[in-house]
Amino acid sequence: MNRNRRTGWSIPAKIAVVTLGAAACATGGMRVPAAEIPSLETQVRTDPANRDARLRLGIAYRGQGRATEAASTLDPLVARDSTDAAALFHLALAYEDLQRWADARMLHEKNRAGGGSARLGRQVEARLASLRRWELQEAADAAVQNEGNLPAPEARTVGVFPFLTTGLNEDLRPYAHAITALLTTDLAQTGRLRVLERAHMQILLDEIRMNETQRMDPATAARAGRLLSAGRIVQGRMDQTTGGIGLTALVVSVDAGPGGTPGRALGQDGALNQLFELEKQLALSLYAELGVQLTVAERERITTRQTENLQALLAFGYGLEAMDAGQYAEAVQHFERAAQLDPQFEEAREELETARGLETGRVTNTTLAARIAMEELGAGAQPPTVVVQDRFAEIEAIIPSPQHRDAVTEMLGVEGLTRGGLIVIIVRRPAGT
Predict the structure, then answer these.
(1) What percent of the chain has pLDDT over 70?
(2) Are 412 and 388 in contact (CB under 8 A)?
(3) Which residues pair with 27 in a beta bridge?
(4) Most exposed of 4, 37, 175, 349 (fewest Cβ within 10 Å)?
(5) What are residue 427's DSSP bridge partners?
(6) What is the pTM of this model?
(7) Consecutive H or E run containing 235
């Protein structure tokens, strides 16, 4: 499975810009040269309890793509001391390489619960965010591959399609993403429904390559429902009206046949500044259509607004749009703005942490990022980050433990990864100038 996106890597005639992470953190990014492996193997055979030799050997194995050997080498460290943060982290990374997502998640969560340094904590959160995406992607892949042998959909499981925005003013489109997310949250306010998370739905739709027009087809909803084991799918759209904005939604019941059975269309119209009220009224109408009679407490939770700031909601929508495109650094900026505009906007803060984790996880391996850049720029362009890392690889090798600072961090004077990173600009002059 490889879902890495390499969009935006192009070399115009005059200017190319490549952004790289500055340096890996001491624990997550430590490298042990392959030349050390024979010596480390001897040390571990002679003294199996030698913690540092075993840890470095596991890291070295993983660096050479030998994830199975890395896992078997590191596992005794965790069995001996379940609070060894570095061993937990690197064993979890080996499990990630082996696509043992549940095992990796368990170790990362144990590491998170154990505390530790702030830098390691950021790396753990980044890995957990990435793991969640990989798990969802793997589930979508498996469902599509096994489409003919899926279990019957569960009536109480509900999925919400991204709202259709065809014909909507470009400046208003992010509101549709935001409304989809808010509606998904509102429909999850009762234990009588199991509502699929927005990312789960988006990843599946990307997997089966369904465009906006197809998303309003009941047959598409039925197929998605079967792939997700969802008994009902909510399809919706946002339109511009003479009075401002219109929200429309319907519930498609997923049956055993090729199509789905759509319910009646539910609509709410009003001015843009009434958007929050329109969304709440639509949520209540959908509950009625789904046959759920709300308690007073449930109704109160549903009608409580996460924000009443339209600009914060717009920034939130832009962030979701960027997340779906895999542009996590841009998503971070939008979610930060949403949280600044309304510090009480809880869902924006949650998505901000997810986006930060995904962005950190995306650039954890700076050497790989550099190699991708080198392929695009040509062998003659050697980004300074790579030069420094290669030059000080031998110094890194004599550091006794990954809990110490690494040589690259010392040399560059930075702490861990930064979103800005290092920018290398290459200006190519037109021929004959």
Answers:
(1) 73
(2) yes
(3) none
(4) 4
(5) 15
(6) 0.67
(7) strand 230-241
Residue 261 structure tokens: 């059975």
Query: How many structural domains comprise the chain?
Result: 4
Pair 167, 217 in one domain: yes
Say whether both 208 and 333 belong to one domain. Answer: no
Per-residue model confidence as pLDDT tens digits over 243-280: 789 999 999 888 755 666 777 889 999 999 999 999 99
DSSP H or E segment with residue 269 = strand 266-270
For residues 64 and 34, is the Cβ–Cβ distance under 8 A?
yes
With a CB cutoff of 8 Å and minimum separation 6, the contacts of 381 are 373, 374, 424, 426
- Tell me: do 397 and 279 sit in the same domain: no
pLDDT tens-digit map of 283-311: 999 999 999 999 999 999 999 999 999 99
Find the helix or strand (DSSP H, E) in which 377 lies.
Answer: helix 366-377
Q: Is the pLDDT of residue 16 over 70?
A: no
The alpha-helical segments, DSSP class H, found in 237-365 are 275-289, 296-303, 310-324, 328-341, 346-362
Q: Looking up tokens 């810009």, which residue turns up?
A: 17
Q: What are the CA-CA distances from residue 424 to residues 19, 374, 427 (Å)? A: 7, 11, 10
